[in-house]
Structure formats: C-alpha cells, structure tokens
Amino acid sequence: MPRKKQTKTLDLCNKPVSGWEILKDRLADIESYNREYLAFLSRVKTEREAVVYFREAAKGRKDLVLVENRGKVVACCRKGRLPLGEGVRLVVAHIDSPRLDLKANPLYEDVDFAMLKTHYYGGIKKYQWLARPLAIHGVVARQDGKLVEVAVGEDEGDPCFTIEDLLPHLAQNAQYSKKLSDAFQGEKLNIIIGSRPDFEFKENKVKERVLRMLHDKYGIVEQDFVSADLEIVPAGPAREVGIDRSLVGGYGQDDRVCSWAAFAAARDARNLPRTAISLLVDKEEIGSEGNTGAQSKFIEEVLWELGARFKEEVVPSRVLYRSKAISGDANGALDPDYPEVHEKNNAAKMGYGVCITKFTGARGKVGSSEASAEYMAFVRSILNRRGVPWQTGELGKVDEGGGGTVAKFLAAYGMDIVDMGPALLSMHSPFELSSKVDTFSTYLAYRAFMEEE
Ligand code: MN
Ligand code: MN
Predict the structure, then answer these.
(1) Within a domain: 289
(2) Are 269 and 381 in the same domain?
(3) What CA–CA distances, in Å, run from 380 to 385, 387, 449?
(4) CA of 332 relative to ligand 2 center, distance in Å
C-alpha cells in the first residue's frame, strides 16, 4: 500500500468519541433497550427477585437454558456450534447490591415506636439511608417449611418505612462537629415500622400490635425473623433523569446494569460459535464469599449440567481453562463535582460507552486480576469491528482508593478475563446514575463477545 494512503487512514491519536455520536443512528434501539432495563430495575431490588425475573423472562425459550443455585444465582446459557470442550464465552455479573439487612432479633419498642435493627450489607455511605422512603423485600422461612415472600413499600397504596434523622437544630454535637465516618453509626440505622399502641396489651403495646399484624398478614411470629433473608432497600421505581431523559437513575445499578445486559445478550445473541453463559452471582458486595458468591464452585456444576443436557463429555476445569470471560461490573465515572479523585486521562466518562478496565485493585494493583496485553487486544478488536462505543477507565487516581471485582475468582480457573461495564455516578448510593448510551453499549459489547470468534 502506498505510504501516503496509509498515513491518511491511520488513527495515530486515540481520541475518545461520545457514544451518542457513534450510535446516532440507533437512538430508537437505545430507548427500547433502556425501557426494558428501567422496568427490570424498578421491579427487582434483591438477588432473589432478579433470579425470579430472569426465570419469567426466559419462559418459552427452549434454547435459553437456566441453571439456578439456591434461588440467588442463575446461569443463563445458550448452546454454541462448537463442543463445550472448546471453551465457553462467559459473562459474570452480580445481582446483589449494597443495602441494610435485618438482624436475627430485629424487632423492639422504644419511645412508643416499633423499630427494626439492621446490619448494613456492602459499602454504603450511612447518611444516604436516613430520612427517605424505604421498602422491605425478602423471604421468611417458617418452621413448617413454608417460604413467605415479603415485598412492602413499592406499590401505590403500600406503606413504606424509614430511618429518621436528627433535626439540624440539635445536630451540633451529635453530627456536625464529628468526622463523617463517626457522625453516622451503624447501630443507629433502625427502621421505624409502627407507632400505634394496642391497649389490649400490657407492655410493648406498639411492638405487640405490629407482631399481631405481621401474623395476620404473613402467618409469622417473632422467632421467624431468625430464619429470614429480609432486605431494606430504597422504595420506588427507577426514573429517567435529565430534561433530555439521557440518564437512568435508580437503586442497584451496581451491578444490575451489567446483569441485565448479560441476560439480554444471552437471550438475543445469534449464531454462537461457542456456548455462551451469563453467570449472575450473589455476595459480590461482601467479597464473593459463601455458597452463592463467585468463590463458590457453582460454575463447575453449571458445566456438568450443560454436559448432561448437550450429551457431551465435560471436565469443567478443562472447559474453563479454555474459556474466555468478561467480568461485568460497574465502574466509577469521572465526577463533575469531585474531579480531584480521578486522573483525567484514565477515568471513564459517562456517555462514552462501555468501560474496559485492564486491572483493578488498590495500592499497587493489589487484589487485581490483570488482563494480559493479548487479551485486551482480542477484546478491543471485537468492539472496534462491531462499532461498539468503548473506553478504558481506572477506578480513581493512584492511591486514592480502589476496589475489586469477581474477575480474580474466575481467573483462578486459568481462563482469560477482563472487567467491562458502564461507569456510574453516585455509585453504591440509593439513587445511582447511568447513561442510556452506556447501558446499551454494555449490552452490545457482551453480545459481540458472545457472537464473534
Ligand atoms: Mn459491582
Ligand atoms: Mn459494588
């Protein structure tokens, strides 16, 4: 090729391009994708509800195989042309989000209020949970084996719950003069569940009335709280944000934004060379521990199950060693009010597409599963080939903080894996923000990863 022509077509500089520019001909697709995503985000507030939602959404699709673990983890699988032994394409995301869980003995009465004690789950800024409407979602397992489902605070006509906050007039010593980390204490995150006494009862007239109402509605007694997974979450639906409706605001986008994209990609993908699996796990926010976290060996069970269904011999460890994976997780976006925590050349910007993160970790990449140069090249070539808006981003300046994802737990099987998901603002808050073009780009990226060789 003549040298003149070559330099003309070469992009010497890596200039970020807005996703809105790249996808300007697909605005209707962006809107319809986000309509589905908003409906999912509004309905689903817990890991269990996510699994139920995916189960319903997969109904009637014989080619979409769902393998579940304890109602809190689900693998959504589509068969590829090649045998499982050639490796699979895996997208792993998490369906748990930061929240407040009820303690085992939550209910008590104080100054004529019935209150519930909580223990927070995951990294929250405690003050964000005060003085706002909250809902209770979860299950109570009764001794007789019945599982009682609870969801109060979402429907019009439902009551909601709240944690009260101190009035500013009296907050001088208790809050204002303290460090933020000391001003709000976990033991003060108590939920108001009632305040009306029943004078039939001798003492704890409010608490006992609440117990009577819970028994009438759910058939539960106080000891049943011991065997319950009850989660306190922000009440109300997800919303479009901005006069231009360009953003999605809602609770739990870390990481239901990637979970929905992974599910939708597995559902919609066509002509798969390899079997594609979207593995949606629990417990990421507290370290991926336990039998429903990414550190459990459930992915091996999924492969045994697929081997049986596809009538193929599988050795899960060999399949996984030959597999390629994306760890789908939300990243922190360049913050217009706090740009000082970011390094501008390596911070993800909202509206610039899905963010690929080569390494995570903190204080010198500690705790990271770093993707190799070769694998980064493989992934970016797919995205460029398919015209998917993407960028790279590191979580904050060097030594500013940091964080980890499920990537390292899957990398332990020897597969190639890289972190990829949209960047959010107000991450881990009751009202996280995403860009509609980024949520759609994430879906396009996961789908391309499943469909391309
Ligand atoms: Mn996450
Ligand atoms: Mn998180």
Answers:
(1) yes
(2) yes
(3) 8, 10, 10
(4) 10
